[in-house]
UniProtKB/TrEMBL annotation:
This is Mitochondrial carrier family. It is a multi-pass membrane protein. Coiled coil: none annotated. It comes from Micromonas pusilla. The keyword Transmembrane applies.
Amino acid sequence: MEPRELAGHVASGIVAGTAVEAALYPIDTIKTRLQAARGGAAVSWRHLYKGLGGNLVGVVPACALFFAVYEPAKRALLPTPGAFGEGTAAHHRRTAAAHLAAAASAGLASSLVRVPTEVVKTRMQTGQFSSARAALRHIVAKEGRLAAGLFAGFGSFLLRDLPFDAIEFASYEQLKLAWCALAPVAPKPSSTAPGGTNPDGEVETRRRPLRRHESAVLGAVAGAVTGAVTTPLDVVKTRLMTQGAEGRGGGSDGRRYRGVVDCLARMVREEGASSLLKGIQPRVTFIGIGGGVFFFVLEAAKGVFVAES
């Protein structure tokens, strides 16, 4: 992939990621507060944009890293039609696997930025700090820079986001391929003969590109389904990231949960299995709408930043 083309994909990803984060941040705040609340604790509905500025600072490099890995990996992993002497079904399976692997690799790379950003964001959304700077200073000074602080919940974040990224992007790519395959074909312009015919007089055709509103619908479907499936892992991630050093009921350091397994077990034991689905409605709403907005803006931005091949 040429550097200029890669830069176009990265720019498109940044625009799409920033747009969806800014537009749907209040829903994400509501979801986070619902998940962080234990038992019947009251949930505050004030200051729904709290932490947005600091979060956007992290969104830009995270999106840049994601697409800097995703697009080249996808290009390298996608099979050439007929390269293995396989039929259409086998080719589609290889294509889906390529999208899954590329998105998971990109998610792993971007997590180096996304996790610290998510820790600061969730602390602010739950009212623990008044600014991103104050949250960052406290976490680094009191809780440590790595596992206990800025990378708190890193394991649960990967457990949630690697499957999420892989499933959402692979679902969208496969839905897009399937939809375009079903869509009406258009005559392919020919430089050798008028009317879109080749020298043998046969009509050449090409699949029409995905329209903007279609990318929004397919993105919303992919996002909503993926969001619902990964809600329990999202709840665990939120609990681990928001417990802080002042958490009660844990070990000698005062932390309430000792890890992913302990968090899952204690939540089910103390609050019931339904606690793992806390915030599922705003999460599905957020990610469903977010998926539609993200892929709509992404495809539109590609039309600006990525030259057609």
